[in-house]
Write a structure and sequence with these properties.
8-stranded mixed sheet; two-stranded antiparallel ribbon; Rossmann fold; 41% helix; 22% strand; 10 strands
Length: 285
């Protein structure tokens, strides 16, 4: 496809594709940090890339300048990159996609994702996302998932999608998969809304644990577990020194405990959290 450049042509074994994008669906950088962790752990190799000029508003996502090893300043453009990894000990491989949610031409962008998926023989697409939610950092991170069809949801014990409203590029990709009969799931991790200005590795960790269960992999998460533990300690220390935030966390803990006891259906909860997130984005109350 025009605008899509392949850098290699690997023969992959029953591959799955996992993707995440900076922007609307990446609260606390949880989803893109999860994919970055996979790229480090699996030592992915370049597979393909897209022409950034087709998809990004460079005033919204400005290119960066950096000094290379030769001491020469060079441009780094916003982009979406595809990597692949041969996974030891299992009979399947991975395609990993990371980048920034495109500013325009989502249908064309989706076709490029699907082109890579079909070219490499991908059997399952898993999108990772994260939303701000009224869930405290002191309680386990909830991961909610949806599939593109009721049968797919039943196979992976997920809730059928019930949300209606604005969506991100993950929604466009999932719908493109549905239209081409490619299995696709989307996993969402929650990030406490009072931590919206910083990272939240606990959500990245929860996303990757759920991903591992879905694709049948034992992902080495030791480093990420250490990061999440250290980050939680720093958060707790900061919260304890601020009476107002501490009171907010205590109230969220009571709400979370009540929800856990009543076992709120995950489909209803996802709809409620997405709608609350969108209201906050618009400044509605």
């Amino acid at each position: 496809m025009d605008g899509l450049e392949y850098h290699s042509a690997p023969a992959l074994r029953r591959p799955f594709l996992v993707c995440a994008f900076e922007g609307w669906s990446d609260a606390g950088d949880a989803a893109t940090s999860a994919v970055s962790y996979l790229k480090e752990q699996w030592k992915t190799e370049p597979l393909a890339s897209v022409d950034p000029e087709l998809f990004y508003d460079f005033q919204a996502h400005r290119p960066l300048v950096r000094m290379n090893e030769a001491g020469i300043r060079e441009m780094v453009w916003p982009s979406t990159d595809f990597g692949f990894a041969t996974l030891p000990g299992v009979e399947r491989d991975a395609v990993v996609v990371s980048g920034i949610e495109p500013s325009m031409r989502w249908p064309t962008f989706t076709k490029m994702i699907l082109d890579v998926a079909h070219t490499t023989g991908v059997e399952l697409v898993v999108g990772l996302g994260a939303l701000l939610a009224g869930r405290p950092h002191t309680r386990p991170v909830r991961i909610l998932g949806t599939g593109t069809t009721p049968d797919l949801c039943a196979r992976y014990d997920l809730q059928p999608p019930r949300y209606e409203g604005p969506t991100g590029v993950l929604g466009a990709i999932a719908d493109g998969c549905r239209l081409t009969d490619l299995d696709a799931l989307t996993l969402w991790g929650f990030v406490p809304h009072y931590l919206q200005g910083g990272p939240f590795p606990a959500s990245s960790l929860a996303l990757l644990r759920r991903l591992g269960g879905i694709v049948g992999l034992n992902i080495n998460l030791d480093d990420l577990e250490d990061r999440a533990r250290a980050h939680e300690e720093r958060i707790s220390e900061a919260v304890s020194s601020d009476p107002q935030i501490s009171a907010t966390v205590e109230e969220l803990e009571r709400q979370a405990d009540a929800e856990d006891l009543t076992d709120v259906p995950s489909g209803d909860e996802l709809v409620a959290e997405v709608e609350r997130f969108l209201r906050d984005q618009r400044g509605d109350r």
